[in-house]
Amino acid sequence: MDGKDIKLRLAGSFTSINDSNNSQYFYDIDSLNSGINFLDEHIIKLSDDRQVDWVVSRICDHASGTLEPCKNNRYAECPLHGWKLDLDKLSYSNVNVTKKKLSFEISNRQVVIHQPKTHLKLPENILSGQQEQDLIIRFLSHACLLFTCDSINIITDPWILGPCFLNGWWHDPAPSSDALDQLLNADLVYISHNHPDHMHEGTLLKLLDQRPDIPIVIPDFKTRSAERPLRNLGFTNIIPLAFNQIHKLGNNDIYISVLKSGDFRDDSGIYLSYGKKQALISVDSSSLNHYVLPTDIDFLATSFAAGASGHPWCFDHYSEDEKLKITHNRHLSVKKSIFQYIETCNPRSYMPYAGYFSEAASRDEYIKKNNIKNLQQTIAEEIHTSHPDVKTINPVDTDRITISSTITAISSDILRPVIGKNEIDSYLDSEQMPNEEVFTNAIQQYFLNCQFQDNLTLYLLPCESDFTPLEKGFIVDFHKLANTSIMQCEDVQFKYNNEQSSHRQLCIKVRAASLWHVIQHHKSWEELSIGFHCRIHRKPDIYNSDFWYHFSNVYIK
Ligand code: FES
Description:
The protein is of the alpha+beta class. The chain has three domains: 19-117, Rieske Iron-sulfur Protein, CATH 2.102.10.10; 132-423, Metallo-beta-lactamase, Chain A, CATH 3.60.15; 431-554, Nonspecific Lipid-transfer Protein, Chain A. Helices cover 23% and strands 30% of the residues.
């Protein structure tokens, strides 16, 4: 090592390698019906003269749910978040995403589908220079890991101080007591996306205080949704990295590459190699780089918990049974995705991470009781059964992992101070609201400047923290730019209940103090939805993707 030279230099790009063991599927044509056929892994359309028109995967392009038939096979719907695929157009009706047709051949009256498997490989000039090194990884909190490559320390997604998502998420377990010191002494920080459990303002302000020029690596999203908030905070050494390029850290034997989530969202993961040791963390990404990833790696970490959104428990148009069913399906879908990462990357070790929070404020008791998450013990047991060679690491019990010729995981015995009720109450007590006139004018002005148009009407009801509406509410018609009507909340609710038109309508009850914070500081609306500060009703029941994307990634500071 040559000290603290951590300037990043472009060192090349991954090579894509086709694996020899492609997946193959066979379907007997005579057993298929004319029209749409839902099969285990695929949807196949046969014409009236029994020719195969097209084949698509049944995997939802949002976050790997399984598409189910609905409305006489005119649509396929995903039970996880309600994305709807129009089977005439092969595009989703709630979002500008098209389903990819798969190639197939017909052989012996069978539809044969080859799905090639591809993985990423470092260029030969990098591979040939790599030495044997030991990589040390520490779990500090939630999605915050510390990678130590000899004297170079790299920290990911630091959420260390206080709650996030506007007092909706609280650490569980708490960060290790030295986490802030580790951050302040780090050589490089990676932030995967702009959600506050990854880009946490309170934590970053502490860092800014002492290290405004610390190198912060972020994904180079088109919207600059990760870059703008960091620049606005005042950091001066922000390094947006193009996806899939490999960068070398100074003269050290360390390479990193940022990979994009496989869906339309602004999310990412990071690959890191130190000498011959390779690590990949997918963070919250759905199908990172479409599962085209490095293989035979040493360490893999993915999110595992599910329950990291307000859906379905903050959605009022589902019955309790429907919410339970959606939650159950989501658990299965997240597990399926973990197994797909494991099968793709063939890691020596696996750590479930980025799911260590709880809805600890008493006002969110209903969410806490119902928003059950996958347990890391259950995930570990299932991996142990199906992939006994993969060492599963429970980061809560063993937070220090050394990756050398063997992999050891031990407890660093550093305290994790428990967050008490008084601390929670003091955060809630500090929430602020202006008088009604200031609040109403600010909301009107906010939508006036939003530059968003859509076939959508928003019925917005600011509420007390228990979702009792305040006096004044808003109807925002996005068909024309910024047409906001102010009226009594009961009238807003009445109009929503009785509106029969076919265009999309979204009714959001929202905690007024949380909304005020978002409006005032131009924060992401996902802070409201993911932080459990909304109760949502929508007609029809589809995800209004453009709305959430605009107000979470585009119209923010
Ligand atoms: S995974 Fe299908 S809608 Fe989210």
